[in-house]
Amino acid sequence: MEPENMQWEQLEQQAAAAARELLQKAHVPHGGLVVVGCSTSEIMGGSIGKASSMAAAGAVYRGLAPVLAKAGVSAKVLANEPASGVMLGDLMGYTEEVRKQAEVCAKALNETGLPVVVLDSYDAEIMTQKYPEWGCEITAGVTTATAFVAKLLEEKKLSPKAALGIVGACHDDDRLARTFHEFAPVRSIAKAAGYELTEMFNHEK
Question: Is the dihedral of CA 142, 146, 152, 157 positive or negative?
């Protein structure tokens, strides 16, 4: 076998092993939901966005897909996820170039027909605040990752393994707090994980 083929086969095996471990430790039920995020640039030993590899993405998917399918989990993957426009917008303001970037992103997301769960609160802000202004609204809706996970916990679709006896405090994300006034989800997640929470001075103010 050629060395390059061996590299991709090894990556497939690692992805499959990671998926099995995740399904087992997260107690994901048949028909449950798994959200997978990774950087092929980092897989290839580079920095995010600097060494993207479709071959690596394919190897990861070939490893994940059979395991997820066996668990009754379906997935739809964007082959090329466009930038939301928020990074460029933070650098140069909300210019016409940023608006065009947003239109491309919204088109790609809307073509999936699926609701968007956003990990980065900066992306959530531009998608919910600016996209509608620019006429490129996400039609199926945008949810922050914290609100999404909190809902899964509430609906008993996730079963966390509680780490009892740990005391902690929530440091609220600035945009989740100021733009979305979102405070409860992260606290419910922390409590579900077994954390005993104390609040910092002037929280939610």
Answer: positive
Please tell me the total number of residues recorded for the chain in this structure. Answer: 205
Q: How far apart are CA 121 and CA 129, in angstroms?
A: 12
- DSSP structural state of residue 200: P
Q: Which two tokens stand for residue 91?
A: 């650098």
Helix (H) or strand (E) holding 116: strand 116-118
How far apart CA 168 and CA 183 sit, in angstroms, is: 15
Residue 179's CB is within 10 A of a number of other CB atoms, namely: 15
| Contact between residue 102 and residue 130 where contact means Cβ atoms under 8 Å apart | yes
Segment 57-91, tens digit of pLDDT: 889 889 988 988 888 876 666 666 788 999 889 88
Distance (Å, rounded) from C-alpha 122 to C-alpha 175? 7
Tokens of 112: 């999936």
* 47 Cβ neighbours under 8 A, 6+ residues apart: 41
Tokens of 172: 């609220």
- Cα–Cα distance, 39 to 23 (Å, whole number): 20
Distance CA(202)–CA(205), nearest Å, equals: 6
